[in-house]
Amino acid sequence: MAVSPAAVRALILSFTFLLFLNLRPISPTKVGSDSGAPGCDGDYYQEKFRRRASPEKRLPARQGSPFKIALFADLHFGEDAWTDWGPRQDVNSVQVMSTVLDDEVPDFVVYLGDVITANNIPIANASSYWDQALSPTRSRGIPFASVFGNHDDAPFVWPLEWFSAPGIPLIHCPVANSSFSGDCSFRGTQRLQLMKNEIEQNALSYSSKGPEDLWPSISNYVLQISITDNPQSPVAYLYFLDSGGGSYPEVISKAQSEWFNNRSLQINPDSRVPELIFWHIPSKAYEKVAPWIGVRKPCVGSINKETVASQEAEAGIMEILEKRPSVKAVFVGHNHGLDWCCPYKKLWLCFARHTGYGGYGNWARGARIIEINQHPFSIKSWIRMENHDVHSEVHLSS
């Protein structure tokens, strides 16, 4: 009996989801290679990451000067790429980023997921749109890092209007000197290839493809902010996690949670150094603190225009974060109509601000800024708008 493609996709996603919720990670290339691992999963993970953990990359901070981070969320480059409207939105998004970068002059930029709308990109040239999104930051010589969102490797969705007059548009292959390498057929670009291209083609990229044991999630890594003349004295740790979506379920897996727990205990055992966490899709904890109407204290923000669209399941990450006094805040994107920060237990849960002109919603564009001060230590954040306005300042270290 023939099985429909939809049924096959559903089966694959269901199987992947079950693997993700399983405590023991499965590597795509080494399935079964750890069959002799100890029975205690905690001991197994600690030993595994002692063997495989690589030194975290260091971001230099000037002695006594604030370290400023700009978050660019939900840019959605490549949306409706076959129309006149789509490329215009990408130009507008570049302008928003350029304004923020010139106004704030950050030390570092985080691309917080949904950099592109892969489900609107018909051929395997998504990296060329990714490059466009990076261009304002790269041209100013500012280092950056990225995490994946649910649209970054989503399967291409055939527009229904293509099947009526005037029909399917001609494929325009990238020019020879672009970053595109591959055939000009209707297929997408996978997460791993996107990250590989970013890292190999950008000396300013601090992104990493993360431990292969955490596959199919890719963007899982940690960066250390350190004083330039004292690299062994960290100011803060920045953790990046892949919250899924697109080619697999929207979830931070148990394996990722265990990776964070063991990595943080390894490099920051006494929780002395503050930690900031970045991923794309909000956890279910965001639903618990979401304001009902408007944005009222103790939350801080300017728009609360939709309900939280959270991950499909919780697999332990929030419980781990709640117990670490060094974790000060989590930053996400995904919801274009939300830009608030709200306290949760002993940390803050924050949305970025919709930066790109791609994606849904007509709210004014901008970017969340984070500033880390050393003496006295503090972390504060605000929103910088495309019209140069500043609002919603919040202190995250109190």
Instruction: Give the helix/strand class.
Output: alpha/beta
Give the end-to-end Cα distance, rounded to a whole number of Å.
62 Å
Strand order of the largest sheet: 1-5-6-7-8-10-9
Q: What is the helix/strand order? A: HHEEHEHEHEEHEHHEEEEEE
Mean residue pLDDT: 83
Our Rg estimate from Cα atoms comes to: 21 Å
Oligomer class = single chain
Number of strands: 13
Approximate helicity band = 10-25%
SS field, number of helical segments: 8
Name the poorly predicted regions.
Answer: 1-54, 176-180
Overall geometric form: globular
Q: Characterize the biggest β-sheet.
A: 7 strands, mixed
Features:
398 residues, alpha/beta, 7-stranded mixed beta sheet, 6-stranded mixed beta sheet, disordered N terminus
Verbal overview:
There is one protein chain. The chain is α/β, with parallel strands linked by helices and 398 residues long. Helix content is 25%, strand content 20%. It contains 8 helices and 13 strands. The N terminus is likely disordered.
Structure summary:
The protein has 398 residues and is an alpha/beta fold.
Element layout with pairings:
Blueprint: H1 5-21, H2 41-52, E1 57-61, E2 67-72, H3 85-104, E3 108-112, H4 126-139, E4 144-147, H5 191-201, E5 221-227, E6 230-240, H6 254-267, E7 275-278, H7 285-289, H8 317-322, E8 327-332, E9 341-344, E10 347-351, E11 366-373, E12 378-385, E13 390-395
